[in-house]
Every structure is written in structure tokens, then in C-alpha cells.
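Pipeline run #58 for the internal structure catalog. This entry was flagged by the ingest filter as a single-chain record with no existing model, so it goes straight to prediction. Upstream metadata was stripped on purpose; only the residue string is passed forward. Reviewer on rotation: M.T. Logging verbosity set to normal.
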Amino acid sequence: MSLLNRQQIISIFFFVLLIFVLYQLGLIFSPFFSAMFWAAILTFAFLPLHNLIKRLTRGKETLSALITTLIVLCVTLPLAGLVVSTVAVQGIKMYDWVSTTVTVDKVREIIESIKTYHWFNLTESRFFNIDQFQENITTYMLNVSKFIGNYATNFLAQTTKNILIIGVNTILVIFFVFYFFLNGERLANSIKKFIPMEDKNKDGLFLKLNETLSAVVRGQVFTAVIQGSFGCLIYWLLGLPIPVFLGFLTFLSSMIPVTGAAAIWVPFVIYYFFIGAYTKAVILLVLGTLFISLLDNFLKPYLIGEKTKLPILLLFLGILGGLRLYGLTGIFLGPVLLALFFALIKIYQEEYLSIPK
């Protein structure tokens, strides 16, 4: 084996030093990754508006970025403040409501009324023990109410305690949004130059990532907003005491695969059934199915699957796995990594598996 020559030693030293510096920079900038990520999400969400404003201002980039950032600020900041305060307050109200509604005596009264039905007497002895069921359901519902109350209280306390940190992060997000609107295209082009690939492959890779992230952001957020809004309206019409809080929970849960928004409204169908409010139970079941949960099946495949050209099953698994691995950000990162994988597979097939004629 020949000894390394001087040029090889210099190359090894350079790449080792580069990796070390990149690692250190990653540690330095890691506290700001969350702000940068959510700024990127907002940028993708409002990018069509920014492009329209840029055309109206005849290509004045700084002015366009400033106007779009101000619009983002005026739309998201009051909405976020309203949601945070309303959710915290209504979460505490929900705890009080469930604590006073779901009591041992109340559950016992409901169980006794169910026992009067003939069909129940025929099935109870064969399939389950009603006394054990009463004890389990009471414990479960009381624990759920306690969890919701503690979560809402802690959420409000942490929000008040960390108001300075929240304010700093908000300023950072706004700054990053402005920077991405102003220099996002130049930043992407600069990154492109450092990737050791053919230009056509780099263009195709970035185009795929841009299409996927745009579709996922707009598809997930748009669908979740519609489902949460419909849910809030339905809960209000049915007389539930905390419709905004439940609508917010529906908004969050709609982005989670498998259970989706049904995790919020189905328990209330069961609740209405047990208290004898059969009309409300049927109404919530029908409206929840048609106007909340089924929207997910129509909108997301159209807004995400069709535009990203990803298989629906893999898209579903990507969102679920990303959520488990990365938390809320995984909802967006999972499909993007899938799109990146398929784009790289396509490049590999074209560049390395092509058979010369």
C-alpha cells in the first residue's frame, strides 16, 4: 500500500475540518431550528400570496417581502393569541364541566337506566360484567377530566411563565419569514451549487422537494383548519360547553393518521348515547362522519397525494412514522423524506442503471 501523498493528506484534512465545523455550527444554531422550521412552514403557506404581491410591486423584492411578512404577522399573531388564551380558559372549563357531569352517582344512574333495556339483559351476562364496566368507565372518565384540567392549567401557567421566551421566538420567526421571502430563492440556488450532482438532477430534486413540502403544508393545514372549524360549529350547535377548545383539539387530531378527528367527536357520541340524548348522538355521528372525518379522505389525497405523486399507503405511513419519530414536525418531514427518497431512486435509475445502446 503506497503512502498518502501530500494532496490526499490535504484533502482528508479539509473534509475532516469541514465536518467538524459543520457539526459545531449545528450545535450553535440548534436553539433556532424550531423557529426556522416554523418560519419555513409559514413561508410555504403564504408563498402564492408573496408571488402575487411581487407581481403587483413590479418585482421589488424588499417591499414585497416586507408587505407579505406584515400580512403574515397580522393574520397569525392575533389568531395564535386568541387560540392560546381561549384554549387554556376553555380547557379549565372543560375540566370543571366533566368533573361535575361525570360523577360516580351519574355513571351509576346511566348504567341503571341501560339495564332496563331487554337487549342489554340478553348480552350483558354473555359478553361483559356491567359492574366491572361501571367501575372502569368511571375511573377512566375521571382520569381523562383530571388530565385535561391539569394540561390546561399547566399550559396556561407555562405560557405565562415563558412569555419572554415566546416573545423572542415570535420575533425570530417573523425575522426568518422576512428573510425567506427576500432571499429564499437565492439561498436555494446557493445550496444547489454545492451539491455534487448534474444540474438536471439537482433541478429535479429541488423541484420535487418544493412541490412536496408545499403540498403537505397547504394540504395538512388547510384540511385541519376546515375540520377544526366544522367541528367547532357542530359542537356549538349541539350545545357542548367548550366548542372552541374541542374545535382546536379536532384541528390537532385531524393531522394524526389512524384516529384523526374521530378521536375527539366519537367519545361525545358515546357520551350522548349513555345519557339518553339519542337525537344528539345520531346528529353528531352523522355530521362528524360526513363533515369532519370524511373531509380527510377527500381533501388530503387531492391536496397532498395527487400533487406529490406519492403512493397513498406510503404517504400515510410516512406521516404516522414521522409523527412518532419527530413529533409535530414529523407530519411535514415524513412526506418530504419520502419524496426525497423517490427522487434519488429516480436519479439512480437514470444515471447508474441505464443500459447504453
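catalog note: Residues 31-185 form one domain.
catalog note: The two ends are 38 Å apart (CA to CA).
status: ready for reviewer M.T.
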